[in-house]
């Protein structure tokens, strides 16, 4: 529908309604029932047709009809449905609202027909009251008005899109003109760029060589740092890095008033293990025990180090005495459960450890050396009491 037709319909003083029915009485009753009908301050213009062929002519002559009140059975049983198909398929009128009326309820349109041809209502004449007809028609005209509004908006957007497309064509032409100018200027710059590119490539090559050298230096420094801080046999931190780390967490715990615990553990009868199995197997035992210590420490965000020989230490930041005892017992249990054979041990047929545990709350004076000394004394007590256990000193 053209935009001018939509404006004409909206400015009209009435809504066109075509009533198609082969009975004069139906037309008369319909006029009587709708004589006072108004929607948006506009009344109705009722146009009557008494056959489907006459309805076709009226629909062709009045494309601005809002609603078609249509009897299904007239000169033929499917005359009304044929008119519906003619309206939608031949006239391509998708705006008009269609309400079917019938006095023979057993002849009803299939659901697929209602959906395909956008039929907006189906009324039995025996049930048709003035109120029901009024409601059906009000809904249909409202839908018709909404469709016109949407179509008007669509046409408006389409017109704007066309204007935009025209503007884009003009802009594109100007862009082409400017592009040609820029191409000429670009050709003049190409030669200069070639010279600059050679200079840049030379600098990039030098930069790449410098980056390769820096990477090699970084890797070398990383290896040196690893060698300086890591025990070569076990992979744990060495004693030097243990001292540095403990100093850092000591200062942090002291400043924040957090607890700090350490565990020092010793493999029981390790000299006998070396004498019995040999030093290569002894190194292997140290590595297996170190792996377990590293795993247990990691579960509690602890720091594990080789303290010296067959001694190991775990630093537990922000860990109180009770929690550190739990970790010590877990460590002792996991090492014993690893079932590493130890025929030189007098406490078990497997490798075991003795553990000294201590903790500080920073509520009294103390030092790092005192903390280590207490843990070492606790380790001594654990050995004295029979090994394969942990002892705590406050």
UniProtKB/TrEMBL annotation:
What name appears for this protein in its UniProt entry?
Diguanylate cyclase (GGDEF domain)
Q: Where do the Response regulatory domain residues begin and end?
A: 16-140
Origin superkingdom: Bacteria
> What Gene Ontology terms describe what this protein does at the molecular function level?
diguanylate cyclase activity
GGDEF domain residues = 258-394
Pfam hit, one: GGDEF
Q: Which UniProt keywords apply?
A: Coiled coil, Phosphoprotein, Plasmid
Q: Which SMART domains match?
A: GGDEF
What SUPFAM superfamilies would the database entry show?
A: CheY-like, Nucleotide cyclase
Biological process terms from the Gene Ontology for this record are: cell adhesion involved in single-species biofilm formation; negative regulation of bacterial-type flagellum-dependent cell motility; phosphorelay signal transduction system
One GO cellular-component annotation of the UniProt record comes to:
plasma membrane
Question: Where in this chain does the entry annotate a coiled-coil region?
Answer: 147-181
Give the source species.
Acaryochloris marina (strain MBIC 11017)
Q: Which residues carry this modification: 4-aspartylphosphate?
A: 71
């Amino acid at each position: 529908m053209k935009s001018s037709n939509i404006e004409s319909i909206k400015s009209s003083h009435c809504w066109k309604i075509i009533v198609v029915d082969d009975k004069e009485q139906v037309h008369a009753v319909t006029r009587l029932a709708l004589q006072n009908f108004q929607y948006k301050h506009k009344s109705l213009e009722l146009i009557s047709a008494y056959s489907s062929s006459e309805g076709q002519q009226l629909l062709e002559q009045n494309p601005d009809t809002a609603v078609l009140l249509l009897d299904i059975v007239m000169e033929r049983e499917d005359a009304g449905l044929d008119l519906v198909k003619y309206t939608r398929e031949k006239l391509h009128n998708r705006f008009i609202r269609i309400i079917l009326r019938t006095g023979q309820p057993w002849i009803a349109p299939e659901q697929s027909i209602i959906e395909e041809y956008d039929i907006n209502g189906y009324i039995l004449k025996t049930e048709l009251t003035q109120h029901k007809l009024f409601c059906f028609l009000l809904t249909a005209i409202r839908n018709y008005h909404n469709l016109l509004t949407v179509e008007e908006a669509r046409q408006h957007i389409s017109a704007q899109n066309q204007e935009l497309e025209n503007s884009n064509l003009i802009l594109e032409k100007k862009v082409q003109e400017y592009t040609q100018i820029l191409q000429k200027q670009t050709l003049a710059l190409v030669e200069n760029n070639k010279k600059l590119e050679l200079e840049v490539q030379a600098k990039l090559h030098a930069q790449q060589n410098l980056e390769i050298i820096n990477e090699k230096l970084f890797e070398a420094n990383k290896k040196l740092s690893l060698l300086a801080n890591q025990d070569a046999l076990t992979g744990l931190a060495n004693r030097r890095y243990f001292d540095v780390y403990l100093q850092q967490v000591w200062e942090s715990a002291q400043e924040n008033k957090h607890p700090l615990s350490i565990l020092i553990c010793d493999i029981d009868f390790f000299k006998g293990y070396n004498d019995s199995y040999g030093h290569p197997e002894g190194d292997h035992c140290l590595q297996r025990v170190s792996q377990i210590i590293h795993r247990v420490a990691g579960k509690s965000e602890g720091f594990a180090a080789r303290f010296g020989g067959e001694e190991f230490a775990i630093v537990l930041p922000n860990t109180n005495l009770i929690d550190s005892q739990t970790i010590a017992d877990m460590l002792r249990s996991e090492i014993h459960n690893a079932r590493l054979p130890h025929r030189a041990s007098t406490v078990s047929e497997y490798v075991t450890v003795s553990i000294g545990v201590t903790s500080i709350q920073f509520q009294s004076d103390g030092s790092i050396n005192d903390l280590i000394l207490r843990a070492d004394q606790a380790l001594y007590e654990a050995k004295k009491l029979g090994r394969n256990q942990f002892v705590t000193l406050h």
